[in-house]
Amino acid sequence: MFGSSKKNQSMPSTMNTKPETVIGANTRFQGTLTSDGNVRIDGSVEGDVEILGNLIVGETGRVVAMIKAQNVHVSGAVKGEITVIEQLEISPTGKVWGDITAGALHIEPGGLFRGQSSMVSNIDEPLMLEAPRPSET
Asked: Which family does it belong to (predicted)?
């Protein structure tokens, strides 16, 4: 009767799109990771992450980085500053240590967040560096 029509809310509908790039569970990456598409991290990433699409940190994912993305879903562990245009979601297995700037923040029961959060409706764009402009001569 009650609760029998519970929706599957594992990820927001914008996050259900298939990732174009996957960092596998047995992979370690150090440096700057940039992508125009969706990215899933199941391995280890250290450095900077700039994604124009969605970022999913899987349960085995470990990220120590400054993150900028459209949407972020954390089921693993993230340490660092996170800037999200739309929504940051921390699942029951997710852990985030660091400051967050996001349009929306959703922490499911069991999820861990230690840091400060700032909710904004308009974050300066673009996330990526602008292309060089032609010189006027």
From this structure: Belongs to the bactofilin family.
Residue 130 DSSP code: P
Q: Residue 91: which domain range?
A: 16-109
Contacts of 52 (CB under 8 A, 6+ apart): 35, 36, 37, 69, 70, 127, 128
For residue 113, give the H/E element and its range.
strand 112-114
* Residues contacting residue 3 through CB under 8 Å, at least 6 positions apart: none
The DSSP call for residue 132 is: P
Instruction: Look at residue 125 and tell me if it is in a domain.
Output: no
The pLDDT tens digits of the residues spanning 69-108 come to 999 999 999 999 999 999 999 999 999 999 999 999 999 9
Q: How many domains does the chain have?
A: 1
Residue-level pLDDT at 4: 38
Residue 28's identity, in one-letter code, is R
